[in-house]
Amino acid sequence: MKAFVQMETDSRLESSLWVDSRRCAAVLTGWHFKWTEVDKRSRDKNSVSVPVAEVVGVEEGKVEVLPHKTVEDTDKDFTVFYVKRSSSPGSCGLLWRLGRTQFSCPSRVLRDQWIKNLRIAVKTHTPLRPHRLLVFINPFGGKKKARQIFHSLVAPLFELAGISTHVIVTERANQARDHLLKKDLTGFDGVVCVGGDGMFSEVLHGAIGRTQQEAGACENDPGVTLQPCPLHIGIIPAGSTDCVCYATVGVIDPVTSALHIIIGDSQPLDVCSVHHGFALVRYSVSLLGYGFYGDVLVESEKHRWMGPLRYDYSGSMVFLSNRSYTGTVQYLPADPLLSSPRDNTRCLSGCSVCSRSTERLFPNSSDSGSLYSSYSEHFHNDLEGEWVTVEGRFKCVSLTCMSSSCARSPMGLSPSAHLADGTGDLVLVWDTNPLNFLKFLYRHTSTEDQFDLPFVEVHRVKAVRFCLAGDTKEEEIRVLSDEMDIEAGGHVRSGSRNGSQQHLAEKATGMMTTSEEKTVTPFTCCLCCKKPSAVSVWNCDGEILPFTEISCKIHGQLVRLYARGIEDKAAIHHCSQERDTCNKTCMQGRSLP
Ligand SMILES: CCCCCCCCCCCCC/C=C/[C@@H](O)[C@H](COP(=O)(O)O)NC(=O)CCCCC
Ligand SMILES: Nc1ncnc2c1ncn2[C@@H]1O[C@H](COP(=O)(O)OP(=O)(O)O)[C@@H](O)[C@H]1O
Ligand SMILES: [Ca+2]
């Protein structure tokens, strides 16, 4: 066997290796591990290049992990596991799968050298890879498959990558949030939720709340500058809408999400804080919607047994009820020179608008330790500017910090919104006839512009306020507020969607189901000729808010997810160049930063 070896002081290494019975020239540079078949008869050199950052694990021997881990312990072999991409029909992003190649070396010494150097390279180039994770599983989310999804698809990958986990299967709503707020989190690099948007929201509240507690920041103060969370959050989708996962990864796929977590991808995310007076009500990242979306949520809670289909059924019912609501919306526009919700751009992995925001939000972030102080300085004047007021009758008022794309709407509520630019998009849909509103809704399911309609407005904003129009019965709202149990710190207590919130929401929309009123009143709508309700409720990432009058502020890049934004399918190609010189996203890997 003839082989050449070159070793340097860093992790660089180059030698002949065998893959099956084919001889390959293998090279490990700082950033990439590449092997090319050396076969004189073949014109096309079969070459695979894997970014070191996307290596999942390097194991001794010939190893298989699926369906079960098996190891053929030979002293000249090693196996490399890495991220492999494939397209996902019907989704906007790419599916990630576990790639596996078994290599044979001419000697044990060389085999050990390869394993050592590959492991060093991985460690050096992926500082955010988690070692220990806290995992919350909601066994009741979506199709109730979260436990199975985690144990059969995700846990074996974590084990392969050497990630240890502390797994908690929740027994009640808000258990994950409370754990994050109160328990010792020492040693955890991140938190993973296995569930839907509601479960993510719990983890988000826990992580943000804990960070503010430790920083001494008052979450109830609507003008406060919140501290960015140090813990990364991972989402294994197992819910009904899974909007946060879809909008940050591009596909709903537990394996893809697990691989993003393993390699320590990092995607900052804007968060909107929602206040009622001087109390924090909730945080939102995807949909904060009044009118149509609030009514859909209330209706859907009655049909939870339908699983994810409850939203389709309830959407149709609410559409037929043809309701609209009066109110006053005030908003603080974002700088129009930076971006616009109508500029036809998409926030994709490596988005330049978000990168520029990072520079604005964290101007000195390269100096260690200055992250928080620079963030605070930036936000000192973040609510300056002229507020705009609009008043009237709306079908719906929605605010989203990101596109909020999901399987139901692959482009999302606001297709050009950005994940991490410190702004949100406010969509106002004025009262209109049912056909027009259907046209608006229907456009969410295609690439047609839902904002190109005369009764629709969209504004990129930094903050929003909403209050009811003068003639709306304020008393009705006050009853709601009084009955809602708010804990110190502003958190709504026992926010299970099956509990008190539903009761209150039902009151708000006239759908009483209390013991005093045994008959379940259907929609108070024009179709069934009952008196329409004067007020709707806010749907805040799938939770019903106990208040109608709210003020909201967008906090740029407040949390970080184990994700990297949606990879541009169009930029994906099979690259024949040296990886270090390719500036696109290659099928086997990702371009260099
Ligand atoms: C004629 C076809 C009409 C289709 C209209 C489609 C509009 C869809 C926009 C969906 C945006 C979703 C934003 C995400 C919201 C979630 O946070 C929330 C809770 O999700 P989960 O925890 O998984 O239950 N989901 C919803 O509020 C569902 C809204 C569905 C509206 C039809
Ligand atoms: N063990 C539990 N029992 C009841 N509710 C729970 C439990 N764990 C979490 N929840 C709550 O269930 C709600 C829905 O969870 P989620 O995972 O988002 O599913 P879905 O997407 O189907 O709504 C969340 O608001 C969460 O707080
Ligand atoms: Ca944003």
TrEMBL record:
Single Gene Ontology MF annotation: ceramide kinase activity
GO annotation terms (biological process): ceramide metabolic process
A Gene Ontology cellular-component term: membrane
UniProt xrefs under PANTHER family: CERAMIDE KINASE, SPHINGOSINE KINASE
Full protein name: DAGKc domain-containing protein
Pfam families: CERK_C, DAGK_cat, PH_CERK
Superkingdom of origin: Eukaryota
Sequence ranges assigned to domain DAGKc in this UniProt record: 128-277
